[in-house]
């Protein structure tokens, strides 16, 4: 075999190794696990929206044997919650599913009423090495979509859940915000127990690190009504110990009527020290160059190997 042929085989072998090493185990729902979720159908939809799935990955469903199960089903069965003829069914937790092909995968619980109550998951699996990033928190929505003017809306944060340490961690409030479009002049209402909770507007850094030593503004009386009269990204949490770390945190993007794109998944702005709770200005951070640098380094390495072998 010629040196060129050997070098080509070496490049292909290295590329294949790179792809196989990108496979990962993904815990469905993270800390929430596989249960009837507090956010209804949106809970696992929101979780899937911030995750990426590639061929070779393994889905791990954490549930209690005897009280839950997980079935892979067709799209039609997923939409209708029909568990009569699943593609596969696993009744012992934790259960693993290897994503061995590209395309759509659908999972539901076969326990009565669990699927209609939101215990179902739909994901899209991409080829290995596609480098598709999750929608949040790394990138804002990418395609513009004009929004029609409408009357201001009052949103009750968490709906019936209220504002507290949620079951499942941050996923609960992420799921609540996932399908909502927040516009200037809308109002957020935080319902909580006076003396046991509060709500604080914080910077992006404080939101990510759960450091509430330097809040922008704090509301300690319930219900707290917050007018969103400036477009941009808003970050809320609680100043009580451990609340933020346990998932009592909310990030939203507020748009004008000429906004960019729903649903509302906030792109982190730069830190703000303003004392006005309605002037948190969006400041999109620089897009990470890590993927492009890694790709460049990979091809440089392959070129070096080929040159040596040649």
UniProtKB/TrEMBL annotation:
Residues 265-290 are annotated as: Disordered. GO terms for cellular component: plasma membrane. This is Phytocyanin domain-containing protein. Residues 1-23 form the signal peptide. PANTHER family: BLUE COPPER PROTEIN, PHYTOCYANIN DOMAIN-CONTAINING PROTEIN. GO terms for molecular function: electron transfer activity. Residues 24-127, 153-256 form the Phytocyanin domain. Keywords: Disulfide bond, Glycoprotein, Membrane, Signal, Transmembrane, Transmembrane helix. InterPro entries: Cupredoxin, Phytocyanin-like, Phytocyanin_dom. The chain crosses the membrane at residues 42-63. It comes from Jatropha curcas (Barbados nut). It holds the Pfam family Cu_bind_like.
